[in-house]
Design brief:
Layout (H helix, E strand, L loop, with lengths): L5 H11 L4 H4 L15 E7 L6 H17 L3 E2 L2 E9 L4 H13 L4 E4 L3 H14 L3 E3 L13 E3 L6 H13 L6 E6 L3 H11 L11 E3 L11 H8 L5 E4 L3 H14 L7 E4 L7 H8 L4 H4 L4 E5 L8 H14 L5 H20 L5 H8 L13 E2 L5 E13 L2 E13 L1
Parallel strand pairs: 1-3, 1-4, 4-5, 5-6, 7-8, 7-9, 9-10, 10-11
Antiparallel strand pairs: 2-3, 11-13, 12-13, 13-14
Helix pairs in contact: 1-3, 1-12, 3-13, 4-5, 6-7, 9-10, 13-14
Length: 405
């Protein structure tokens, strides 16, 4: 739990030096050459072990990339980034936040697990220290004053995809929903967008267990149950290791199924595609059980200036394409940069929180967005498809399908 070390900062700056990231992302650097503001601490909460570790690493990388591009300053103030492990439960998340608050942080960011976000809500609100969450955003998190999110509400990807498919799937389609227990927000969003009583839904959702660290056969019986309904399309919700196992077991359990798979972007986000290529080594064409289409608020191939420079710098620094997790954390830093500058020379948490409501539009790698009244983004949603780029799997943007928030 410390400020980014010198070697790490130099590595990031070396990558950024050839990209013009500061200018390219349109950040307001007015006053940057003026006298430095007082030092501040920002607390970053993310898991550094367990099933959420990879997402946690992306969140740290995105925030640190922004800091490196801006001289380790936010709003003109030198920043110490203090990290805490959120763990995998409300209790461990509460301990992490309490530890950061004791260290006098000006603001908090991060948080991967929705259970952790719900568990720390009262602590954050009572402390009156703003939290700019960059991932977890459960539907139940409402009527908050000090919690903002740069990701999205968990039902939104399902709502966007459901509404899109409702207009495009033939009347003869049969869609089966399969997802782990605990995915209620995502599944309800899809059913709301598609139509709860739409006859093309082939029965109720098939709920699976073992969302965190599933074994080699954890999903086999549930997959058979789902495919016994003779679907022409599948909607699912898995991420990380669970996503890899689901796709692998779907292909192994029922190789004859070649229909499309639709899902929120979690299914193919981060390192999932690279790991799938190594795990399913039967040859490129045979690897996927069918076309995989995902919906996300971000795609690394978006053609806008902010994304071109961000994605280039991220790839150069970390040797991978940026994920939506990294992008949302990068934006969390950008949001804090703007708010702290508005708050003035000697900002306190309450002033920063008030300033967050005044920052207006964010020129983001995902496209321009802004906070809505519930303190979540009003933003675009994109349909992507999984394609091979040589021997590498990639998420390729097809088109914009909705604006929500």
């Amino acid at each position: 739990m410390s400020q980014m070390n010198r070697r790490r900062a130099l590595q990031l700056l070396a990558a950024l030096g050839t990209t013009g990231l500061v200018a390219g992302c349109g950040t307001d650097d007015e006053g940057e050459s003026a006298a430095a503001g007082s030092p501040i601490k920002i607390g970053l909460v993310a898991p550094n072990r367990g099933s959420g570790k990879t997402i946690g690493e992306d969140i740290v990388n995105g925030f640190e990339l922004y800091l490196a591009a801006h001289g380790q300053r936010l709003g003109g103030h030198p920043v110490t980034l203090v990290k805490a492990d959120e763990g995998d439960s409300a209790k461990t998340g509460q301990a992490a936040v309490n530890d950061l608050l004791k260290q006098g942080v000006l603001a908090l960011t991060g948080v991967v697990n929705p259970t952790v976000m719900s568990g720390i809500r009262d602590i954050v609100e009572e402390a009156r220290v703003p939290l700019i969450g960059s991932n977890a955003s459960p539907v139940s998190l409402q009527s908050v004053v000090y919690i903002w999110r740069t990701s999205y509400v968990l039902d939104e990807p399902g709502r966007a995809l459901g509404a899109y498919l409702k207009q495009r799937l033939p009347a003869s389609s049969r869609v089966v929903i399969i997802a782990p227990e605990g995915s209620l927000d995502v599944v309800q969003g899809f059913r709301q967008g598609f139509g709860v009583d739409d006859p093309r839904l082939a029965g109720g959702p098939v709920w699976t267990g073992a969302a965190g660290n599933p074994g080699e056969n954890s999903y086999a019986s549930d997959i058979r149950k789902a495919l016994n309904r003779k679907p022409t399309a599948i909607f699912c919700h898995f991420s990380g290791t669970a996503a890899i196992q689901f796709i692998r077991q779907l292909r192994r359990t029922h190789p004859a199924y070649t229909g499309p798979i639709y899902a929120p972007g979690f299914l193919t986000e981060g390192t999932v595609l690279d790991e799938l290529r190594g795990v399913l080594a039967d040859g490129a064409d045979a690897m996927l059980p069918g076309p995989i289409h995902t919906v996300s608020n971000y795609s690394a191939d978006l053609n806008n200036n902010a994304n071109r420079v961000f994605a280039s710098a991220y790839r150069k620094t970390f040797n991978v394409s940026p994920s939506t997790y990294a992008m949302a954390s990068y934006d969390a830093a950008q949001v804090l940069d703007k708010a702290i500058r508005i708050a003035g020379a000697e900002p306190n948490p309450q002033q920063v929180n008030l300033a967050l409501g005044k920052i207006g539009q964010i020129d983001s790698p995902r496209g321009v967005w802004q906070f809505n009244q519930p303190r979540t983004p009003q933003q675009r949603w994109y349909l992507r498809t999984v394609q091979f780029d040589g021997r590498l799997l990639s998420n390729v943007m097809i088109n914009e399908i909705a604006t929500l928030g």
